[in-house]
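Board notes (copied after class):
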Amino acid sequence: MNLTRPIGFLVPLMLGLAACGPVPVDRAEQICLDDARLAAGPRGEIALGTSSGSRGSGIVGQFEMEISSDYIRQRDPSEVFNRCVLRKSGQLPSRVLADQPGWRG
């Protein structure tokens, strides 16, 4: 009976599951700042420029907007942050959202 095939299958599976484990609280706080920012309001970008070429010239534009369901549901960014950190690290944040470096609320 050859067991190399089942073992060869299990090793990548176990490594993949290990990657889903909890992250350190400080890393989770950094990651979750983005969720809190999106809960506070949509984020967008507008780019304008001019072009010239064989097809003619003109104004070229681009518009991007990112909005979260937390913003639509009017969830408190602090609660969104706390839940996110708890989900990713298994622990509560070490400091509240207002005291996080980089937070402007």
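Comment from the instructor: The longest strand covers residues 43-51. The chain has four helices and two strands.
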